[in-house]
Amino acid sequence: MEEKERPSFEEALKQLESIVEQLESPEITLEDSVKLYEKGMELSKQCNEVLHQAELKIEQVNNRQDQD
C-alpha cells in the first residue's frame, strides 16, 4: 500500500471495526470473508506501524527529559 493511499490511524481503525462487523454477518460468503480478512490484516499492520512510531517518539521525548 503506497503512503498516499494509506488512511490515517483513526480512519484505519474505523475500517477495521467495519470489517469485523461484516465478518460477523451470517450472510457473508467465504470469498468475501477472505478478501475482508486480507484488507483487515493490511490495516492492522499499518496501525501497528503507526503505534510503534509513536512509541519510539515518546521514548525519545522521555529520554531527552531524563537527560535535562
Specify the helix fraction band. Answer: over 70%
Order of helices and strands: HH
Unreliable residue stretches: none
In total, the number of strands is 0
What portion of the residues fall into strands of 2 or more residues? Answer: under 5%
* Radius of gyration using CA atoms only: 17 Å
CATH topology: Helix Hairpins
Number of helices: 2
CATH class annotation: Mainly Alpha
User: At CATH's second level, what is the architecture?
Assistant: Orthogonal Bundle
Mean pLDDT: 92
What is the end-to-end distance? 40 Å
Oligomer: single chain
Task: Provide a short characterization of the protein structure.
The chain is an all-alpha fold and 68 residues long. The protein has helices at residues 9-23, 30-67.
Q: How are the elements arranged and paired?
A:
Elements: H1 9-23, H2 30-67
Could you explain the architecture of this structure?
The protein has 68 residues and is an all-alpha fold. The chain has a single domain, classed as Helix Hairpins (Orthogonal Bundle), CATH 1.10.287. It is built from 2 helices and no strands. Helix 1 (9-23) runs antiparallel to helix 2 (30-67). It is rod-shaped. The model has no long low-confidence stretch (mean pLDDT 92).
Considering the chains and any ligands shown, give keywords for the structure.
single chain; 68 residues; mainly alpha; Helix Hairpins; 78% helix; rod-shaped
